[in-house]
Specification:
Layout (H helix, E strand, L loop, with lengths): L5 H4 L11 H4 L12 H8 L9 H5 L6 H9 L3 H9 L5 H7 L3 H4 L12 H14 L15 E5 L3 H12 L3 E6 L7 H4 L9 H13 L2 E4 L9 H7 L2 E4 L5 E2 L12 E3 H12 L14 E5 L3 H12 L4 E5 L26 H4 L3 E3 L2 E8 L5 E12 L2 E4 L5 E4 L2 E4 L3 E3 L3 H7 L3 E2 L2 E2 L12 E3 L2 H4 L4 H20 L18
Helix pairs in contact: 3-5, 3-9, 5-6, 5-9, 6-9, 7-9, 10-19, 14-15
Length: 484
């Protein structure tokens, strides 16, 4: 185990320092400074090596957290990354982007601040890349079977890497011009610089995975034609259909979905020229939605030099402490201050958007909001509380309503269930040999669930093609971690 008295000697939870706000708003680099190795080792030593490590249950991947905490504390980084990679293909992604349900399940968290699991994880993989410990693992033999993976987000990449290592010839199709899905175009650089994607893709290419960017399956290649070309197909197209807000003024110029805005900025960051870019520069920005995507919009607007940024959430402000109805080891809904919130702006709760208001040229100039009240379990605007908030740019970060699956329905006759592609307990659809992994099948979820499903779907595909599999299958579509 890690330091037997570590959690007694080191009671404080210590995380890397965020760069000063005034400095980080001048660039798009990641907000955290490089962590001190000695501090990380001391924090890893707080792990208790519990008889029943609930952090395993909190993590959909089943990460071997006490094991690599122990190895990190002992200074055995190379062994630590081997244990980490045993369950997680991309810790450089999860260590930066996952909300860490494992930490909510940490046994130490019952009466002390939880172990800094997420920070130890990203420190392990960063150290491994820096020391060239991350090597390609090409298959020992080829099976002669071919698999098409459609979508290059975390679910698709995880499935592709597992299937390539099992000996299948795998091609990943991505409709965008670069590989990475929402990792590439949905996540701002200040949360994860894209060099991490490039580093991992080099490993996957060296292993034999083939990438086909700029190919829109369903249009450039029909789904049914793709199915005939390959022995199996994995649908990992995500849940990209945005949730809209149908109120007066929705069609005004200046009201956009969050992903329209974030994708454009990521393209600019990659060196592309974006015509008529949506920008917050010199504008009063209002972001609707209090989740991670909303925070990404806030941080982006600050870096584009917005005049003001207001974040509206329709519900109540979450509590600062774990509520009684979400006891350990559940993941509680808590009030959080992300790096973007720390950078400025105003957060308003119990705010119901009633109408977008126009200027004389048809552009949004303000939004009318009212206080939210609860009637018969419904959230409705409270009469008599309306007020206006100036808004030159409104960004809708209200979540996602399912996958963009029209062509799947028409070309492969795959039924959708509440916007998600239907599948059975082995991730297989009604079309033999067609499997679904990640948000396309489960709906909008966490990156750690996407990777877990990609790994599990890969095992199902391998079993379908070979009659058996040695690939690990961490979850089934019906599984739920205690922390979720």
């Amino acid at each position: 185990m890690a330091d037997p008295k570590g959690f007694l000697k080191t009671r404080e939870r210590e995380l890397p320092t965020r760069r000063p706000v005034s400095l980080r708003l001048m660039d798009w680099k990641e907000v955290y400074e490089q962590g001190d190795v000695a501090t990380v080792r001391k924090q890893a030593g707080r792990c208790m090596d519990c008889g029943i490590p609930f952090c395993h249950q909190g993590c959909p991947l089943g990460n071997l957290i006490p094991e690599w905490n122990d190895l990190m504390w002992r200074g055995e980084g190379r062994q630590a990354i081997e244990r980490l990679h045993a369950t997680n293909n991309f810790p450089e992604f999860t260590g930066r982007l996952c909300p860490a349900p494992c930490e909510a399940s940490c046994v130490l968290g019952i009466n002390q601040p939880a172990v800094t699991i997420k920070n130890v994880e990203v420190s392990i993989i960063d150290q491994a890349f820096a020391n060239d410990w991350v090597e390609p693992h090409p298959p020992e033999r080829l099976t002669g079977k071919t698999v098409a993976v459609v979508g290059s987000g975390p679910a698709g990449l995880a499935a592709a890497q597992q299937l390539t290592r099992a000996g299948h010839t795998v091609a990943v199709f991505e409709r965008d011009d670069r590989i990475g899905g929402l990792l590439r175009y949905g996540i701002p650089d200040f949360k994860m610089e894209k060099r991490h994607i490039e580093t991992r893709l080099k490993q996957m290419q060296a292993e034999g995975t083939r990438f086909r960017a700029g190919v829109n399956i369903g249009t450039d290649i029909p789904w049914d034609e793709l199915r005939t070309r390959y022995d199996a197909v994995v649908v990992a197209t995500g849940a990209l259909k945005p949730r809209d807000l149908s109120i007066p003024g929705r069609d005004l110029s200046g009201v956009h979905f969050a992903m329209e805005y974030l994708v454009q900025q990521n393209r600019v960051g990659a060196g592309d020229t974006v015509v008529d870019q949506i920008t917050a520069e010199g504008k009063h920005v209002v972001v609707l939605g209090g989740g991670d995507t909303g925070a990404d919009c806030i941080g982006t607007a600050h870096r584009q030099h917005a005049l003001s940024v207001t974040n509206l959430a329709i519900g109540t402000q979450p509590p600062h402490e774990r509520p009684e109805h979400q006891p350990w080891p559940m993941t509680p809904t808590l009030f959080e201050v992300s790096s973007a919130h720390e950078e400025g702006g105003e957060r308003v709760y119990l705010a119901s958007t009633v109408e977008f208001l126009s200027n004389e040229t048809g552009e949004v100039r303000a939004i009318r909001v009212a206080e939210t009240e609860y009637l018969d379990g419904r959230r409705v605007p409270k009469a008599g509380t309306e007020r206006e908030i100036p808004a030159d740019l409104v960004l809708l970060a209200l979540g996602f309503a399912g996958t963009e699956g029209d062509e799947l329905e028409s070309q492969l006759r795959l039924p959708l269930d509440r916007g998600n592609v239907e599948r059975d307990g082995d991730y297989q659809t009604s079309e033999p040999g067609v499997f679904v992994a990640g948000d396309a099948g489960r709906g909008q979820s966490l990156i750690v669930w996407a990777i877990a499903e990609g790994r599990a779907a890969a095992a199902a595909v391998d079993r379908y093609l070979e009659g058996h599999t040695e690939l690990p299958a961490p979850v089934r579509p019906t599984d739920r971690a205690i922390a979720i």
